[in-house]
Specification:
The complex is a heterodimer of chains A (about 90) and B (about 160). Helix content of chain A is about 75%, strand content about 10%. Chain A is mainly α and about 90 residues long. Chain B has helices at about 25-35, 35-40, 125-155; strands at about 5, 15-20, 50-55, 60-65, 75-85, 90-95, 100-110, 115-125. Classes of the chains: A mainly alpha (about 90), B alpha+beta (about 160).
Chain lengths: ~90, ~160
């Protein structure tokens, strides 16, 4: 209920209502109306949909960055070894 | 291992990636601009990449040829617009089978608390091109699983 959210978040009622409207339009919040009250509930499905949409691309980019990271580790180890070899001489 | 941040807002022409690396940015800049190094990490795991052209300077051309598990070859190419060591790279990117769909990529290397943050912004000509690129990840994922299946079958 809006009143509860106002209390919990310490924001004004018009501001809460505005946020709820945006969330409702995005399909992230459902409204149920009983006799005198409107109940708002979270709808997480669109978030899961979006995560699914992005997941393969994320994996692809991650795989490439993982290889870059591996290369950077190897290059730094090689640098350290070379430095060590020099100071040993 | 660094965590990858991906931002792709609805209706936008852009995808941004952000990841932290425990390495100096000079070294990361080298990994992006040295011909012998870029071939060791760029592209998809399952594909062998050949560097046809790579001239990391303003106006310089780059062209990579990738060969997938089936032996099919396809090329990616573009032109460098800015190569500012060790902090910024701007270049175009085109998947040659889709000629004329040109993306512009900006790599920014930022030093923070002894680590380096790599920012990668890709701006496409249309939202459809941007979404197409994101969907190509799905194809890649499917191919990748097929490759793994093949590898597994080969060991049996």
């Amino acid at each position: 209920m809006v009143g509860e959210l106002v209390e919990m978040l310490g924001m004004s009622q018009p501001l809460i209502s505005k946020h709820l409207r945006v969330l409702r339009e995005a399909g992230l919040v459902n409204v149920r109306q009983d006799a005198q009250r409107r109940w708002y509930e979270v709808r997480p499905e669109p978030l899961a949909e979006m995560a699914d949409w992005l997941a393969p691309f994320r994996q692809m980019a991650e795989a490439q960055f993982d290889r870059l990271e591996q290369l950077l580790i190897e290059l730094q180890e090689k640098e350290n070894d070379d430095g060590q070899a020099k100071s040993d001489r | 291992m660094g965590k990858l941040k991906v931002i792709a807002e609805p209706g936008s022409h852009e995808v941004t990636l952000e990841r932290e690396f425990d390495a100096p940015r000079e070294l990361i800049f080298k990994a992006y601009t040295d011909k012998a190094l870029i071939s060791q990490w760029w592209g998809l795991r399952s594909s062998a990449i050949t560097i046809d052209q790579f001239e990391a300077k303003k106006g310089g051309v780059w062209r990579f040829i990738e060969r997938d598990a089936n032996g099919d070859e396809y090329a990616f190419s573009g032109v460098f617009h800015q190569v500012k060591a060790p902090e910024r790279l701007v270049y175009t990117f085109e998947y040659e089978p889709m000629e004329g769909h040109v993306m512009m990529e900006t790599i920014t290397l930022e030093t923070r608390d002894g680590k380096t943050i790599v920012h990668d912004s890709s701006v496409f000509q249309t939202v459809a091109d941007r979404d197409g690129m994101i969907q190509s990840g799905m194809e890649w994922g499917a191919n990748e699983s097929m490759d793994r299946l093949e590898e597994l079958l080969a060991t049996m």
